[in-house]
Automatic annotation (TrEMBL):
Coiled coil: none annotated. This is Phosphoribosyltransferase. The keyword Ribosomal protein does not apply. One of its GO terms (molecular function) is glycosyltransferase activity. It comes from the Bacteria. The keyword Glycosyltransferase applies. CDD domains: PRTases_typeI (cd06223).
Amino acid sequence: MVTRAPLWTSRHQAGLALAEAFADRRGHRGDTTLVALPRGGVPLAAAMASRLELPLVTWSVRKVADPRWPELAVGAVAAGGVVVWRHGAGGRQPAATATEHGWLRDQERERQRRQRLFGDPPGDRLCGRHLIVVDDGIATGMTAEAALLSLRRVGPASLALAVPVVDRQVAGVLGRLVDHVEALAVVSDLQAVGLWYGHFEQLSDRQVLALLEAARRACDHPHLRHR
């Protein structure tokens, strides 16, 4: 529970550190899948996939925000029609505003675009598998909550959340949605995930696709990992 930042030079380094916590799943390709939340979760999950010899997929989720204040999320949307709002049942006003102004519709369209582009699997491909959901950090927790609720619907054998840094209060909320939370740093009043990394670039679609393709090649041909 470290309180000093930054802790990792890059998402890749943080992913390797997370892999150590799941060493018991190494090589369990037959029943375990890493599920990255794009875009930020992909570099971590790719590093974990290489170290643990596990398949990697994406599960697209989008936050809903007022375009005037894009960093202030009021909700999030995930596959299967899952939508969560800030303050839960008390979020009726943000929900009504986001729906009326088309913010929810726009983010669902973007989520579907990413779902197609990154090749998110159909839910039945994940049914009965041990899923390890990976993100690069969690401050408000709305996108992670939407993703976890959506993935729980596919019927996994177990659902774990792996994240380098997470807000302490949010960790308690998300912990009720999964079988296990693995967090390298739990921080009170986490404001900005990027502060915990020496290098925290915004990833492009092209970079994400390149990481996914490399991970898939390595999974199909394990000897490539050792070149």
